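WARN retry 2 of 3 for item q-0093 after timeout on previous attempt; input resubmitted unchanged.
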Amino acid sequence: MTNDAAGWLDSAAIDPAVHALRPDYRALLITAEGLRPGPSDELSERLLADAEQAARERFGDGPVEEHPHLAAWREAFRAFGAKPQRTRPSAEALLRRAPAGLPRVDRLTDIYNAISVAQVIPLGGEDLDHYVGAARLVRAEGDEPFETTAGGEPVVEHPSPGEVVWRDEAGVTCRRWNWRQCTRTRLTHATTRAMFVLDALGPMDDTALKAAGDQLMAALTDAGPGVTLASRLVGAAA
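OK item q-0093 returned
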């Protein structure tokens, strides 16, 4: 658990081995305190519906994976040995679901999923009260614990050696860059302090990355007017 969100942002780091793999990678990290969690509601429904409409207008019936940012993410996944047709970058996975309707999970998850789809950017959220120490993006050794579920039961898995993962002092918080989050730090109906990761590669410039972050922060403020926000850009253009 971290009590100082601003200090926590300052401690976040991207390992040089990840920069070597993709020198164009940047992460916009946003912390939010004073959030109002809970089930999906009118605000999150409106954001998801707007995102679904934006996806229909942008892609129609065309293949979403040909979007320049998603194509770059597919290349990044292949570079560390993942097969993007089996384990898709998170934004691509969501956009593929948009025509039939995006999932309705809870108000905080719905908000960041809507921004992910609207801005075509991988975006995830973590509960800061369950985070242990600094956030680090590294290439895995292969023995790090990753808490998840299988068949409805809790299990501990391990990433592949060389896999790009987000981690803290207790283990892996997100596998394959932005593919799957762990259960330990996922957002819940009790989450009031969170951090969000917006992942950008070369086709998304810093102006577009900032615009995505601004849209997320505006939505979080609408969802909880007393929220306190902070952000930091980490990476090549930081």
